[in-house]
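Researcher: I'm preparing a figure for a lab meeting and need a structural model of a single chain. I don't have an experimental structure, so a prediction will have to do for now. The sequence is pasted below. Please return the structure as C-alpha cells so I can convert it later.
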Amino acid sequence: MKYYIIAGEASGDLHGSNLMKGLYAEDPEADIRFWGGSLMDEVYHQHQEGEGLVMDYNEGAVIGFSQVILHANRFLRKLQDCGNDILRFHPDVVILIDYPGFNFKVAKFAHQHHFKVFYYIAPKVWASRENRVKMLKKYVDRLFIVFPFEKEYFDRKGVRYIYKGNPLIDAIDNSPAMHQSREEFFRQNALEDKPYIAILAGSRKAEVSCMMPVCVEFAKKMRTIPAFKDYRFLIAGAPSRSMEDYTRYMEGTEDYMKVLFDQTHGIVKHAEAAVVNSGTASLETCLIGTPQVVVYSGADFNFNVGKHIIKIDFISLGNLIINKKAFKELMQYYFTPDNVLTEVIRLLQDQEYRENMEADYARIRQELGGSGASRPVAQAMIEELK
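Model: Understood. Here is the structure written out cell by cell.
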C-alpha cells in the first residue's frame, strides 16, 4: 500500500521514523512518501530507493500566533504544494503526525479528495482549541492516541480512536546513548569528567532565542557559587538548528558551556539535572530519569493569547499524565536566571525532593504502558485500511 506521512517538527520526525519501521515490517511492499526529517529519511533509505522526502521540517517550522501571521504566504504555498503532491502520489492513506496548524488543513484537503485520513498523536484539543474536535470528526477517519489520559476525553467527545501505548518509550529504551557508559560519553565528546547541567532549549529558532539568554545568565550565576564553580553546562543542539543559533548568546562562557548535536539522550542521561524547554523533551527526560525543571518563554503576545485558550493545570506531558506536579514549571515571567538557579540547586541538594521526583517518573512510565508501541500502531493502521 501507499502511505503519505506528514511530520512537521523534531518530535514528529522521531515518531514518524518509528512508525515507518512498523509499516515496513508489517507491509513489505509499503511505498512511503513523507514530510519529515533525517530520522524518517534514514528509515526510508533502508527500505526504498529514490527520494521519499518531500519537505524537510527544518525548512519552515514556525511557532506562535504572531509568526503564523508573519509567514502566512509561505504557509499557504506549502499547503498548496502538499496538496498537489498528494494528488500526484495518490496514496491509500494520508497519515498526519501532530503539527495541527498545518495538518488540519491537509486533513480537510485529503478528505475532500476522498483519501483516507489517519491522525497519529492527537492534537492537544484537551488543552486548547476544543473546536478542533469537530474537525477530527469531520475530516479524520481514525485517530491514534498516545497518552492514557486522552482515552476518557475522546470517549466523552465521541471521537473514535485507537490506543496502543506511547512510542517514546521505545525511542528512549532503544537509543544507543542509553547503553553508553559515562566514561564513553565523555571520551566520545572530548569532555572533562566533571558534573554538568543539561540544557534543552527547544527545536525552533524562536524557542532557542528566548531560552538561551536566560540559561546563559543562570550558568554564570551558578558558577559564582563556590560549591558549583567546577560545574559545566551542556546544551543539546536540535537537529533543525545551527551552532550559530546557540553560540551567539554564549560569549565569555566558552570554558564551561558547550553545544553538542545528536547527543540529546546522552547529555540528559549523564547530567546532574536538566533545564528543559516544555514539550516532548521533558517527557523524554522523565523516561531517562534525570531530575528536571521545565521552562517556557515566548513573545508576550503569544503568551497572553495562549493564557485565554489553554485550559489545563500543567503544560508538561509528564505532569499531565499523572495529574500532579512531579517537577516544577517556570513559565514566562517566572522563567528568570534566579528562579532557575534556585530550582536547580534544590534538585542537586534536596535528596528527598529528587527521590519523590524519581518515584513520580516511575508512575509516568507505568501509565504510558509497555514498550513496542510503534509496530502495533502500524498493524492497526493496516487493518483499518483493509
